[in-house]
Amino acid sequence: MAIEVEIKIKLKNPTRVRQKLLSIGAKDLGEQLELDIFYDTGRDGFRKADQVRRLRQQGKISILTYKGPKELVSGMQKRLEIETQVGDFEKMRQILLALGHKEGVKAEKKRQTFEYEGLKILIDKVAFIGWWIELEGTRSKILEVVEKLDLDPDKAEKRHYGEIYADFCQKNNCPFVDEMIFEKEMIWKKS
Hints:
Layout: E1 2-10, H1 14-23, E2 27-40, H2 45-48, E3 52-58, E4 61-67, E5 71-73, E6 76-86, H3 89-98, E7 102-116, E8 119-126, E9 130-136, H4 139-148, H5 161-172, E10 179-180, H6 182-190
Parallel strand pairs: 7-10
Antiparallel strand pairs: 1-6, 1-9, 2-3, 2-7, 3-4, 4-6, 5-6, 7-8, 8-9
């Protein structure tokens, strides 16, 4: 079990942020496409309890995650996170459904991962909602790197991507309420 401390900030210029990360000595660990499927009970019990059940596909790796209720501390989210790698994404998906979980939001993102002095830094291009940076580590190291990147910690986003997307759909009349998928974004942009 680990306590995750993170901050998430909307990016206007991801190229500049990448360049700054490399200039301070951050190690680029690569980029990959991720698919997340979020699960809940039929009555939204996990969401109402501020808990997350997520199955993630990262290339050939699949990860099942539980996140406990979040606590907001100085603009950062702090929560219990338990993850385990699973051997087969589709079989785990079937198990979750057989246990009575309901699939909720499906979210795709292109994620570039960096590491800097024990800090995990993620630059995400999320379907429909654009570019974001997440920093995970200790509060002091997060604030240090946010400052080095000329980002404003006061602009930290408290909502998760699904909540941001729900607001986007409401404001933009987007019909794909539970599908933050790049293919759906292309269809929506053409309509």
